[in-house]
């Protein structure tokens, strides 16, 4: 450590460098650190002088790391993560609470997790849950969290993965909307399709039954947050594509139903996993939460399969269990 101190202008240089490297922009790093952009530039220039290497390449669009910068960033990131784990362990010992951080969609949190939060807290009274919420398409790094819900093919060199479900889709609506727009004399009056703005789902390609000639003229509501898409469906505003790992609770309770009633679910090539970085060993508390989410989801789906056998959910899930 004395050698390290001599190689740095100050310990603060590490925090400034980490922020600038992660943000890719000195101005954004300055805003994050609560200092001015010139102060960030001066500290990084001083760090480069001490190390006698160039760490950043300045470009019109921001900054990129040099090879030396990448080496330093990897070392600092791993070091900071180790320090963070140590602090969390100390806090857990002093408070009796262990923190588990989840990177999940706002939709999953709102429509799947919240209805059973009391059950989760009763199951794990010594776990303090924190969330990194994603409003659009689910993705991004899981380096700073314990677990992330992602649609990936499986494990890779950077991540370990536990399968929840294949990506299963089914059109859903409220029973009231179904009664008013999809049955009897109202069958041909047109429907409203509720969509996610950045979704890759093509209603008419994946669900041919929603061609305009089949259900009348189709209107649309488009939102950037899937949580709002489902809320609109629950309030009887139209038909939404239901991701089974999110809508299973509402299908089980009857607040949502397949639309039309004879709908069949489809499985895509994608698989929904809970993943974590190999650089950050999974704590026993995080592993327990992971296993609980998987078990609860599969229980939900089994109930939905029993309630709506026409969806043929067991046939869609079976291949992933082999």
TrEMBL record:
InterPro entries: LysR-type_TF_proteobact-type, LysR_HTH_N, LysR_subst-bd, WH-like_DNA-bd_sf, WH_DNA-bd_sf. It comes from the Bacteria. Keywords: DNA-binding, Transcription, Transcription regulation. The keyword Transcription regulation applies. Residues 9-66 form the HTH lysR-type domain. Belongs to the LysR transcriptional regulatory family. This is LysR family transcriptional regulator. It comes from Billgrantia zhangzhouensis.
